[in-house]
Specification:
The chain has two helices and 22 strands. By secondary structure, it is mainly beta.
Length: about 350
């Protein structure tokens, strides 16, 4: 006897916009502290930058560990830095919640000496500990965007959700990095988004691929999310393509997605793919975006990030979640009446978050 598949989907109806207090246009308060740190919730603000000398930078501000949403506020900030000369650095600032300040009116988050603040157009981002200090600015080249309400709703009453707001789909970055007593100054392309939810993500989603890129005049956000078994492994395609800041395509329902060249990642026990293809078709117009992996920047089993009795419980139930971050090439192809009119290539960083067991 088969189990009933539970309802889920991207919130897009007029009633869903109203119930969430949202309009079609993104407002600054949406990038503020949305959950209040309530039991069962989690929230983070993400920033990344690809700098012209090859340096890659990711800074994230968390209200609590995403795997422990039932816990009280335990804010921390992380940085992943890959320098142009090949050095990889991972650091964290984790302090008592009294070091955390925030705003509900807009993005203004502070964790110790680490901060992110801005107004959907211009942001300041900082990270500081005794190893590395970064001061960065981000100025939007693409307006704030979200797929419909930005909320994937789960349950017969849509009572559970995972929300995502690309506050700055792409912008210009300046960054000052202090490392080993040496200060370097950089420019490049950056991105900022804001994520939050009210139930443990492992209960909702099986895995997702997500990536963003700037390729020539094109700016891209591409994601393919697969729900958990009880939601029928339903997929939620998300896609946004802009050119010189003007959005050309953002309807995930018109997207065909494919994965090519599978390989087994020994470190995490997951099947991952060297090539991801997002193919968007709308009448005579079409765009194809292809991510091609060159190397893995980060991969780890999530259970190795957990301690104490929670880790023991995760082992008992066989939890096998893993995270991967990749670097490689990205190609954008533009078609008209099926004829290739333009093709440009560049570089990108993308991720695979894999909560469940392999299904392929």
């Amino acid at each position: 006897m088969s189990s009933k598949i539970i309802r889920s989907g991207l919130g897009s109806s007029a009633e869903e916009f109203k119930s969430l207090g949202l309009e079609k246009t993104v407002k600054a308060w949406e990038d503020g502290f949305r959950t209040g740190g309530a039991v069962g919730t989690y929230e983070w603000w993400y920033f990344d930058a690809h700098l012209t000398d090859g340096t890659k930078l990711v800074i994230v501000f968390y209200t609590k560990r995403m795997m422990l949403p039932q816990k009280p506020l335990s804010p921390y900030a992380t940085i992943d830095l890959d320098t142009a000369d090949g050095r990889h650095l991972e650091e964290r600032v984790e302090l008592a919640d009294i070091s955390f300040s925030s705003s509900k009116d807009g993005c203004d988050i502070k964790i110790g000496d680490c901060y992110i603040r801005g107004d959907l157009h211009n942001y300041e981002i900082g990270f500081k500990n005794d190893v590395v200090e970064v001061k960065a600015t981000l100025s939007a080249n693409v307006p704030p965007w979200r797929p419909q309400t930005g909320h994937i709703l789960f349950g017969e009453q849509s009572e559970e959700y995972f929300a995502w707001l690309p506050s700055v789909p792409e912008g210009s970055v300046t960054a000052e990095i202090t490392l080993d007593g040496k200060v370097t100054r950089h420019e490049g392309s950056g991105y900022h988004d804001h994520n939050f939810g009210n139930v443990l993500m492992t209960k909702l989603m099986h895995h997702w691929y997500w990536g963003r890129a700037k390729v020539g005049e094109y700016q891209i956000i591409a994601s393919y999310i697969t729900g958990e078994k009880k939601y029928g492994y339903k997929t939620y395609p998300i896609f946004m393509l802009a050119k010189n800041g003007k959005i050309l395509a953002d309807d995930g329902e018109k997207l065909t997605y494919s994965e090519e060249e599978p390989f087994f990642e020994e470190a995490t026990g997951k099947t991952v793919y060297n090539k991801l293809v997002y193919d968007f078709r709308d009448g005579k117009k079409g765009y194809r975006v292809t991510f091609s992996r060159q190397k893995t920047l980060i991969n780890f089993k999530m259970i190795d990030q957990i301690k104490g009795i929670v880790k023991l419980a995760a082992k008992i139930i066989g939890f096998s979640g893993a995270y991967h971050r990749f670097f490689g090439g990205v190609t954008v192809e533009a078609f008209e009446d099926g004829v290739l009119k333009e093709s440009v290539t560049g570089e990108a960083i993308w991720e695979l978050m894999y909560f469940g067991k392999n299904i392929k």
